[in-house]
């Protein structure tokens, strides 16, 4: 459940959000809440800016079975974004965010095997991108390039300060397959999208994603037969990883979107994830996936 209030003081628009992410049991101490504010300010027709602050609160409670401490988690994300549109057909963007507070859960790509602890968080993220549109060319092609840096912690680090970026509730979906294997953390990624419109109602997009770890798995803590749980995604999948290798993998997706009517949109997504050198040969086969979708707007 969520409540959102929008305050429009043109050119300033402020969104206030409160959301009950997870009710869990009958007790209040095991709930997950998200509150935040996003302020967007249009400087002029060529420049727009945003600033935001979000806080996730989770209290597992001392009465819950397990090793989790009773102290509530309060993880905060503060950031700012700017978009420049002063060059014809080109949009440039730059965003930076900082995470602080404390984190009780190891929602991170390289923390398999460590018991959950309540640690202070110092993490950050940077994203830069550009989109170039050619509306007067045949098939109106568009090219998008984005670079994302997400801070990471050393493998199985038990220190007091946790430096791994927590993706919280991101919906960027950096690759339909990659985003199911690992959470958005401890990585550098490059996204390149190229799209065309062969018909007025049809858009075809080819996506390429390159992912590299900032902190690889270390020889001291990882044997070639050790399974690593890449937590932070549904199901917490387990893989056998190699030590001291940073190349996580690449993904290629072909996305077709057909606007059947003004209210109905059909989609088809075919993708392949090619594991990098960080994956052991026991599980480095290419993964493929085909998704069909239909969106109806009422």
Task: Compose a concise summary of this entry.
The chain is mainly beta.
Can you walk through the features of this model?
The chain is mostly beta strands and 298 residues long. It contains 1 helix and 16 strands. Strands 1, 2, 3, 4, 5, 6, 7, 8, 9, 10, 11, 14, 15 and 16 form a 14-stranded mixed β-sheet that branches. It has a two-stranded antiparallel sheet with strand order 12-13. The chain is globular. The two termini are 21 Å apart.
Would you tell me the structural class of the helices and strands?
mainly beta
How much helix, percentage-wise, in residues?
A: under 10%
Sheet with the most strands, sense and barrel status: 14 strands, mixed
SS strand fraction: over 45%
N- and C-termini, Cα separation: 21 Å
Q: Count the strands?
A: 16
Provide the fold topology.
Layout: E1 2-9, E2 12-22, E3 32-44, E4 47-58, E5 73-87, E6 90-103, E7 119-133, E8 142-150, E9 161-162, H1 178-181, E10 187-199, E11 202-213, E12 227-229, E13 238-240, E14 247-259, E15 264-275, E16 287-296
Considering the chains and any ligands shown, give keywords for the structure.
mainly beta; 14-stranded mixed beta sheet; two-stranded antiparallel ribbon; 298 residues
């Amino acid at each position: 459940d969520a409540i959102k209030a929008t305050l429009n003081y043109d050119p300033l628009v402020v969104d206030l959000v409160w959301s009950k992410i997870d009710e869990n049991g009958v007790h209040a101490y095991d709930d997950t809440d998200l509150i935040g504010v996003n302020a967007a300010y249009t400087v002029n027709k060529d420049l727009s800016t945003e600033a935001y602050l979000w806080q996730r609160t989770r209290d597992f409670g001392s009465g819950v079975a397990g090793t989790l401490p009773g102290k509530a988690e309060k993880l905060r994300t503060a950031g700012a974004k700017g978009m420049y549109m002063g060059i014809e057909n080109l949009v440039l963007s730059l965003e930076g965010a900082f995470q602080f507070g404390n984190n009780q859960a190891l929602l991170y790509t390289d923390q398999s095997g460590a018991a959950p602890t309540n640690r202070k968080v110092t993490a950050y993220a940077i994203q830069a991108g550009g989109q170039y549109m050619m509306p007067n060319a045949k098939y109106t092609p568009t090219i998008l390039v984005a670079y994302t840096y997400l801070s990471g912690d050393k493998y199985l680090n038990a220190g007091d300060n946790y430096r791994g970026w927590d993706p919280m509730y991101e919906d960027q979906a950096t690759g339909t397959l990659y985003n199911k294997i690992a959470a958005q953390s401890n990585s550098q990624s490059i996204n390149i999208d190229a799209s065309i419109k062969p018909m007025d109602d049809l858009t075809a997009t080819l996506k390429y994603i390159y992912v590299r770890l900032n902190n690889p798995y270390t020889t001291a803590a990882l044997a070639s037969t050790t399974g690593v749980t890449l937590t932070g995604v549904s199901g917490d999948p387990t893989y056998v990883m190699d030590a001291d290798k940073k190349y996580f993998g690449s993904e290629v997706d072909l996305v077709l979107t057909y606007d059947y009517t003004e209210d109905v949109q059909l989609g088809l997504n075919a993708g392949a994830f090619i594991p990098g050198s960080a994956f052991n040969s026991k599980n480095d086969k290419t993964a493929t996936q085909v998704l069909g979708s239909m969106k109806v707007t009422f």
